[in-house]
């Protein structure tokens, strides 16, 4: 089962052990909203889109799994998946948990804004590129 953590909990778990942060948002989101600076927290950070923006719709990236497989991630390290609000990152974490990785979903995301989560990577002022 994928462990759910907040961005602040991730900050406390990050350390300098070479764990991974994978942002699965779209390139448009990275350009407009910003990118998490996981390196500032000691995380090896990658940006791999789970979906692509196609007009008003989003389309699944058919190469998503292969793009992450190509990163040759160490299965002994934690992988923290993040998206805007925790839904896409949950899906990504489940895929890689089934492949034997230790996965975590950043459930409050990079920029979640609702009444349940008052926090997010950006709201908690974690490092941004």
Structure description:
The relative contact order is 0.26. The protein has helices at residues 7-14, 27-33, 64-69, 87-98; strands at 3-5, 20-23, 44-47, 51-54, 57-60, 78-82, 102-106. The protein starts with a strand and ends in a 23-residue tail after the last strand. The longest helix has 12 residues, at 87-98. Strand 2 (20-23), helix 2 and strand 3 form a beta-alpha-beta unit. Helix content is 26%, strand content 22%. The strands form 2 sheets. Strands 1-7-6-2-3 form a 5-stranded parallel β-sheet. Strands 4-5 form a two-stranded antiparallel ribbon. The chain is globular and about 40 Å long. It has one domain: Oxidized Rhodanese, domain 1 (3-Layer(aba) Sandwich), CATH 3.40.250. By secondary structure, it is of the alpha/beta class.
Quick summary of this structure?
The protein is α/β, with parallel strands linked by helices and 129 residues long.
**Could you name the CATH topology?**
Oxidized Rhodanese, domain 1
Largest sheet: 5 strands, parallel
- Strand fraction: 15-25%
- Gross morphology is globular
- Under the CATH scheme, which class? Alpha Beta
Class of secondary structure makeup: alpha/beta
**Quick one: CATH superfamily?**
Rhodanese-like domain
CATH level-two architecture = 3-Layer(aba) Sandwich
The residue-averaged pLDDT reads 93
What strand order characterises the main sheet? 1-7-6-2-3
| Gyration radius over CA | 13 Å
Distance between the termini: 31 Å
Number of H/I helices = 4
How many domain regions?
1
* Percent in helix: 25-40%
Tell how many strands the DSSP assignment holds.
7
Question: N-to-C SSE series?
Answer: EHEHEEEHEHE
Poorly predicted parts: none
